[in-house]
Amino acid sequence: MPFAVYVLGLAVFAQGTSEFMLSGLVSGIAADLDVSLSAAGLLTSAFAIGMVVGAPLMALAGRAWPRRRALLLFLAVFVAVHVVGALTPSYEVLLATRFVGALANAGFWAVALTTAIAMVPDRLKGRATAVVVGGVTIACVVGVPAGAVLGERWGWRSAFWAVAIVSLPAFLAVLRSIPGGRGTDAGAAPVPVRDELRALTGPGPRPVLLTMALVQGATFCAFSYLEPLLTRETGLGAGWVPVSLALFGAGSFAGVTVAGRFADARPVAVIATGMTALTLGWAALALTAGRPVLALALIPLLGMLAFGTGTALITRVLGLAAGAPTLAGAFSTTAFNLGAAVGPWAGGLALDAGFGYRAPVWVSALLMVLALLVAATTAKGRRSRAGERRPSEAVDLSADGRL
Q: Residue range 239-243: average pLDDT?
């Protein structure tokens, strides 16, 4: 694996810390800025919305840019908005910085994914994707718990300062390690945007992108409100929050590692098994949230399933959308973060409706049921169409894993 792929993972670590760390800071932010818990949770949604909007826009804007220049520009903006966020006394300004920071993060993700898979042969594309996504899981293991500890001891603003500082080594590493070529292969004409959009909205990638959005919605819905669940429902002290976040991150890292090894060869087995287990897992956490031992045992398992399944879905999209070299990573990022925007919003609605601190976890289970229905309906439709053409094709399509 080229060293530059690991450099991209390092940069994603810094950005992933920012995206996820609010799960351990929502109570402090709500108290300091005098807003509700659901309003503080919307900071995660604002980041995700920025990712949804920014991924395709930034990818298109950077089509003609050298990859290194695009990555450095996105990182520089990301650092700047975190400095502003650490200084502002205004909830509205903080909300705006989350959105702008997400635009920069989205652009980085879109370019990083396509850069990583362009540097490796086909048989290693799943592993390259896992290395980049693995930066997020390491953020869950190290960065997010560290942010929770900083927030508890010195206030939530210290976590924002830490993200800005940690991003600087990533900036230098990208500067020295990433090739300066453009977003398309050297000597090759760019694929027309219309052709890329046609490839991504076809019957192959489209349902996988929708499934990915629902799976990530379930993940972010429960994860965004993990801190109040553990401290107000499970009965754990505030000191257990960083431990729980680290457990979730450790499971996530394991899931990404496993998915990176098997997603290329057996995508359907990884995705179907992960989605089914996630549905049962979120329901189990909702039922056992009042029992500390069971809740703490489920948290790393759910992290493993959530990020393992998510990595397999991203790899699947990139494989199905080979005709969209610029926008495949952007659309994957958009689907990933569309779920991250809808999930905390839906969980906040359930909290505001008075359904209790377990409600976001039940919403996560419901979103997983919807994801399974989308996948099952799509697979059934494909088998039906394949059977009309030639019965043996249905077996081939199923084995190939086209959801």
A: 82
